[in-house]
Design brief:
alpha+beta, 60s Ribosomal Protein L30, Chain: A, six-stranded mixed sheet, 6 strands, globular, RidA, deaminase activity, EC 3.5.4.-
C-alpha cells in the first residue's frame, strides 16, 4: 500500500477545488499546478505572463519549502500556457529559478486555465 501525506502551507494559495497543494510519498513530492494567485488575497496577480510566471514559481517554491525542498529537488516540470508564443519568456524565467542540470520539462498550449490564468505549472520533486 502506498503511503501518501498531504502537503499544506499558508504560504501558497489554498486549493480552489478537490485537490491538495501537494502530496509526499516516500522521497517523491508531487506539486499540484499553481497559477498566478497571490496566497494572501487569492486574487490573480496583475502584469501579464511575466508576473503570472513569477507568482506560479513563488507558489511552487513555498509548497516545496514546507517539506524541506527547493528547486534543486525538482526533476520534472509541466507547464500549461494559454499562448505558446510565451515560450521564450518561460525559458528566461526557468533560467532565473533553476540551475543546470535543468529538470525535464513539457510545455503545452491549452485553450483555457482556471481563473483565466495565462500559465499553470506543476512539478515533481525528489527529496
Amino acid at each position: 500500500m502506498v503511503t501518501k501525506h498531504r502537503i499544506q502551507t499558508e504560504q501558497a494559495p489554498q486549493a480552489v477545488g478537490c485537490y491538495s497543494q501537494g502530496i509526499r510519498s516516500g522521497n517523491w513530492v508531487f506539486l499540484s499546478g499553481q497559477i498566478g494567485l497571490n496566497p494572501q488575497t487569492m486574487q490573480m496577480v496583475e502584469g501579464g505572463i511575466l508576473a503570472e510566471l513569477e507568482q506560479c514559481l513563488r507558489n511552487l517554491k513555498a509548497v516545496l519549502a514546507s517539506v524541506g525542498g527547493d528547486f534543486s529537488h525538482i526533476v520534472k516540470v509541466t507547464v500549461f500556457l494559454k499562448d505558446l508564443g510565451s515560450y521564450t519568456v518561460l525559458n528566461e524565467m526557468m533560467q532565473k529559478y533553476f540551475a543546470t542540470p535543468y529538470p525535464a520539462r513539457s510545455a503545452v498550449e491549452v485553450s483555457r486555465l482556471p481563473r483565466d490564468a495565462l500559465v499553470e505549472i506543476e512539478a515533481i520533486a525528489v527529496i
